[in-house]
Amino acid sequence: MRFPKLTPLQSRFVASLVASIIILVIYYILSNPHTAYAAELDSIQNQDHNHHRLAKDSLTVSSVNRETEEEIAKLQVSDEEKIRAGVDKRQDSPTTLENNVPKNDVIKPSETNQYIVSIPTMFSEKGVQGSGFPSPMFNGSSDQVDNGSGLAQVASSENTEWQTVTNQEGSRKVYVSVTTCSQPLSNSGSPPPQLTLYLSTKSNAGPGNDNIQNITLYEGHASTIYLGTDDFYMAVVPPDVPSSLTSEWNYEVAASIDGFYHSYSDSQGLLLLDADSQSALFVSNNMTGATPDSAIYTEWMDMWPPPLTIFAHNTNDSSINGLQRSYCGLQNSAQIQPSANESGQMVVSMTNRSVGLWGSSPEPKQQFYLNTLNGSSTYHGIMAMNGNSTHSGPRVVHGGGQVWRTMTFNTKTDGNCQLLFDLTQCPNVAHAVPTSPQFLNDTPALANLYDLAAEALFQNFTYSLAQVPCNTTQTAQYSLARNCTDCANAYRNWLCAVMIPRCEDFSTSTPYTQFRNVNPLSQFVTPNPLNSFSPSGQNASIPSNILYDPTYVPMPSAPAAFPFLNQSPANALSANQSRNALAGCGTNLSASTEVPSDANGNPNCGIDFSIQPGPYNEILPCGEFCYELVRSCPASLQFACPAKGRGFERSYRDLGSDGSPLDSNGVLMCSYDGAILNPSNGTANAARRGVPVDRTGLAVGMLVSGVFVVGLGAW
Ligand SMILES: *[C@@H]1O[C@H](CO)[C@@H](O)[C@H](O)[C@H]1NC(C)=O
Ligand SMILES: *[C@@H]1O[C@H](CO)[C@@H](O)[C@H](O)[C@H]1NC(C)=O
Ligand SMILES: *[C@@H]1O[C@H](CO)[C@@H](O)[C@H](O)[C@H]1NC(C)=O
Ligand SMILES: *[C@@H]1O[C@H](CO)[C@@H](O)[C@H](O)[C@H]1NC(C)=O
Ligand SMILES: *[C@@H]1O[C@H](CO)[C@@H](O)[C@H](O)[C@H]1NC(C)=O
Ligand SMILES: *[C@@H]1O[C@H](CO)[C@@H](O)[C@H](O)[C@H]1NC(C)=O
Ligand SMILES: *[C@@H]1O[C@H](CO)[C@@H](O)[C@H](O)[C@H]1NC(C)=O
Ligand SMILES: *[C@@H]1O[C@H](CO)[C@@H](O)[C@H](O)[C@H]1NC(C)=O
Ligand SMILES: *[C@@H]1O[C@H](CO)[C@@H](O)[C@H](O)[C@H]1NC(C)=O
Ligand SMILES: *[C@@H]1O[C@H](CO)[C@@H](O)[C@H](O)[C@H]1NC(C)=O
Ligand SMILES: *[C@@H]1O[C@H](CO)[C@@H](O)[C@H](O)[C@H]1NC(C)=O
Ligand SMILES: *[C@@H]1O[C@H](CO)[C@@H](O)[C@H](O)[C@H]1NC(C)=O
């Protein structure tokens, strides 16, 4: 066969035409989407992970190099396409979880929600942890926030810790967490049963199948660590409930290679300083053990806003039960919600006020002041952190927040105790003091009263101390062991402890209290609607079985004001008046009121007159404040503590025989500034002081140089 002879131009045209057709054919073959998808769909349905294995075989955790990362990135894209295609075709195929991206889902009884954490997620790039805190939070105290290595408690149900696989080469740790954000309403009062999380290496995770783990959530939270090399599957399954229950659960599930997205810490985070009938004051644990001269200390103190927050909820309402370990659950159910609002329900700040006996720990900590609480109530208090404290939500490492163990606290009843803190003269005071309705909404006026009085007394003490040769050679000093600085410190500590009584309800059942101001004849009682013992401005309604309590233990060897009467709360000065503490007349004197005088004719502007709290209970200060004063100051100042049996017991209470201010149930026996009222076992021990003091050598005596009585004088 002969071809027509072509000119050179024609033959060039034919050649390029043929080439173009071939390119078009190749392009058509390569770009045909049907062929490509058919293969991919098959592969997902048959669990065919050939290409994954190829990629994985070259992977180890320590050698995830640049090329493999690129490879993984490519795989991730194709994987997402696969999943999208799969979801379109099969409603029940598992949802892919991405690193640090929570999935918020709803589930009804008898449904199962499936999730997959696939290799592209497991070997993806780590999330950005950020600069973090000045130092790991709570370093230096027992509580340790999860620092990204998964060593925070893995608590699913109480005391459960779990890890399926031991470390193997090339494996990755995946932190898995689930939190319940809302649960069905329960009409029985007890919370509805909890969801369960199943983990499996097969795609059918769920009840009855071949799971590697199942965890039932506890108080709305479960977390666990998966350690492996291959895809794994999770299922969230609601409990068996009557089919009549149509309600649903709303929850978040998340997987992360950086650390738990939702964290729970089963350690005591929140320490109660005190509460009154409308507010409560807390501190967190030490943020750091760093010393005040370090930059870390300053950075913590200057942190604004402070990193933590709290939720609170009246225990008489059960809607929070079942959600107490879930940040989103608390957001949906707690009555008192986080805010840093200066005028609102919650005021937070950083503080270095000492916590613990003898002002032992001036470390930075966070303070929480909760306002607008109800009186005579019990509350749950739950410390928490929103996200990582500066950021929250998807793609933030720890973005789902952290929750600490719930504590409970009581508010007071009678309305004549009021929280006082951040005083100028007594900076460590942070407890409730006697008050009356006129001060309840004017805390600065109350603080000013105590501050002025303390200042006046301290000033006179300084004059007295100036008579002592302090600035002299060591051998010429009054003591080899103590100097004037020690004396001044001991005086201030003693002054603040005895002058600013720790107030308890008159109606309290707390042990270790001492009646004060139980005076049926007092002219100075402000009507107080909350205090059942002052209904009409007179506390004449104090029942006579209290006033003349036959079980009252008299102090026969003490000098008595009314020696001819049987001692009773009504006539013993230790019970029918306050410590005569506000010697500097405060701002509360109106011109028409006659100022009462003490025995020497000096004006007496004590608590009973200036504040008029009505009857209350006092938790007596620890005797150590008096002993330490006597020990530290020169004998020429003539400080002495009242003797046992002659008044000591009405003014102070000794530490326990183990040197602790707490009894074996953790109840405060004697008051000191910075006492924690809900001590954990750890803090109770930390507050202990080893050396019991020899008290026998202390002289009986009263005081000198304008200082008021150390103990009350008459019984
Ligand atoms: C929180 O995470 C963000 C990144 O998402 C980071 O920039 C920030 O520093 C983190 N904050 C803390 C306190 O770690
Ligand atoms: C705690 O802090 C100290 C110094 O402040 C540091 O040496 C130590 O490593 C920290 N511990 C942890 C677990 O971060
Ligand atoms: C995290 O904390 C644990 C226990 O406190 C410690 O052993 C580990 O070294 C810490 N990891 C990092 C990265 O700080
Ligand atoms: C959950 O796990 C426990 C053992 O860890 C097993 O005894 C139990 O049968 C499992 N429950 C279900 C529903 O798989
Ligand atoms: C704070 O830390 C110090 C030591 O770092 C410790 O002695 C003290 O007991 C801690 N205080 C609390 C309340 O944990
Ligand atoms: C503080 O909270 C109160 C009530 O919750 C609100 O009225 C006020 O606007 C808030 N103030 C600020 C500064 O957020
Ligand atoms: C508490 O912090 C303040 C600064 O915020 C500092 O001036 C003071 O010295 C600190 N107190 C102690 C006991 O370290
Ligand atoms: C819970 O206690 C508060 C007062 O503390 C009261 O006002 C409220 O009615 C109580 N609610 C229930 C359900 O008992
Ligand atoms: C301080 O001392 C002066 C002089 O002795 C006395 O008049 C005054 O009442 C004293 N002040 C107080 C608060 O005791
Ligand atoms: C001792 O001397 C120092 C300075 O030399 C002075 O600041 C201090 O007030 C003196 N103390 C007494 C009690 O005189
Ligand atoms: C007093 O003694 C304490 C130790 O007990 C010491 O730290 C302080 O420097 C002394 N003060 C003076 C002024 O010597
Ligand atoms: C203190 O420890 C005892 C036993 O060691 C335990 O039963 C108790 O619950 C602990 N108390 C607190 C508040 O942790």
Automatic annotation (TrEMBL):
Keyword terms of this UniProt record: Membrane, Transmembrane, Transmembrane helix
KW Membrane (keyword) present: yes
Membrane-traversing stretches: 12-30
GO biological process: calcium ion import across plasma membrane
InterPro entries in alphabetical order: MID1/Yam8
Pfam families: Mid1
GO molecular function: calcium channel activity
PANTHER family hit by this protein: AEL197CP, MID1P
UniProt-recorded name of the protein: FZ domain-containing protein
